[in-house]
Design brief:
Length: 380
């Protein structure tokens, strides 16, 4: 479909499904971060005001200039918020209207205050302390500095002890969507998946047409060894059969997965990402693969590649969590029965709303935003 026709179809589809969203159940995990959003000072004008370093390139030049010397780089905390791929995605799904259960590292034995709002929107279980991220945000991207030690408690033994295997089985069997995200930061995630595949999946016996969706986001696996990435991909593929599996990738991750699979992946513009995602899909037998550069998104399904332009903004109010909002929107589209192209539109609109407003949208917000993107003489 052309852009206008797709937007009109998206508006109608969302309007038609408004009453259905509240009945959807999502089970999301397993990480949890306290995110500190930070700006880097370029010049300080007074005690109250400063000029911000606008780009990562400018920061890199300042750091390079300090080699062999020293430097004092001032960081200003702008806000402290819930973080982690899982909590952000769960919060977005809850804002969109679905019923969400979250399991992860949100503080133990007591919930960290930053997750209290999520606990009001969703059913929340925490089995470990939260990790911490210093997110340095710039106009051209972000740098995430993580303190990950609490995530070692996200493992099969702790999960069984503090949450329970039978309870996990109940949620996996009773959810319309299961999402396991942030594999990179959780060192025992592959072992945990292996245990689920061996001990829980054989007990699930839904016909293929009624299988739940299962979403995976590896979350920037650059720091992990190729053999570990390969194992994770093999495990993800094994879930297909018990679930309808979606693998989500951003532009950088698409290249990293291609490298792990031994596929050529020359650095080209973002438009080549769809072709690369399709090539990856030939080697990973799952239902759908999505790849989302900054300005657009691609989805591969049943041998076809779909592309949807996003509502790009050069100066977002917030960028940390944009990909997690895309994932939530895309998964919601699939849960509502949308085809891949319409689900991509739901994904980019959810992400676009978030980066422009720094708020997670409702379905009504998505409809309003799609209408605003249409030409003035449109029928909507």
């Amino acid at each position: 479909m052309d852009s206008e026709a797709l937007q009109q179809a998206g508006i109608k589809s969302l309007q038609d499904k408004l009453s259905s969203v509240g009945g959807l159940k999502a089970f999301v995990g397993l990480d949890g971060f306290v995110d500190e959003i930070i700006h880097v000072v370029d010049k300080r004008d007074s005690a109250e005001s400063f000029q911000r370093l606008p780009t990562i390139q400018k920061l890199s030049e300042r750091i390079a200039g300090a080699a062999g010397k020293s430097a004092n780089i001032e960081l200003v905390s702008k806000t402290v918020k819930l973080g982690g791929n899982g909590p952000i995605m769960a919060n977005a799904l809850a804002s969109l209207g679905s019923k969400v259960t979250y399991l992860g590292s949100l503080g133990y034995p007591k919930l960290h205050p930053v997750f209290e709002e999520l606990a009001e929107r969703a059913e929340v279980f925490s089995i470990a302390e939260a990790a911490h991220t210093d997110a340095l945000e710039f106009e051209d991207g972000k740098l995430m500095f993580g303190k990950m030690t609490p995530l070692t408690d996200i493992n099969w033994d702790v999960l069984k002890e503090r949450f329970g295997q039978d309870r996990l089985k109940s949620y996996l069997a009773g959810s319309d969507l299961v999402a396991f995200v942030n594999w990179t930061m959780i060192p025992y995630m592959s072992d945990l998946w292996d245990s689920i595949l061996g001990e829980i999946c054989p007990t699930l016996s839904q016909p293929e047409s009624e299988q739940a969706w299962m979403f995976f986001d590896l979350a920037d696996p650059e720091k992990r060894h190729i053999k570990d990435i390969q194992r994770a991909l093999e495990l993800i593929e094994k879930f297909q059969g018990s679930f309808r599996v979606i693998l989500g990738l951003n532009e950088k991750e698409t290249h990293e997965i291609a490298e792990a699979l031994g596929l050529p992946h020359p650095d080209k513009d973002s438009e080549s990402i769809g072709e690369l995602a399709a090539e990856i899909h030939k080697h990973i037998q799952v239902d759908t693969i999505v790849a989302h550069p900054v300005t657009c998104a691609f989805g591969t399904h049943a041998g076809e590649v779909y592309r949807v332009q996003g509502p790009y903004t050069a100066k977002p109010k917030i960028s940390t969590g944009a990909g997690d909002h895309f994932n939530a929107g895309f998964c919601l589209g699939k849960l509502l029965g949308f085809d891949t192209e319409l689900a991509l539109l739901t994904g980019v609109t959810t992400s676009g709303y978030y980066v422009r407003t720094a708020k997670s949208p409702s379905i009504e917000d998505l409809i309003t935003m799609l209408k605003s993107e249409l030409p003035a003489d449109s029928q909507f």
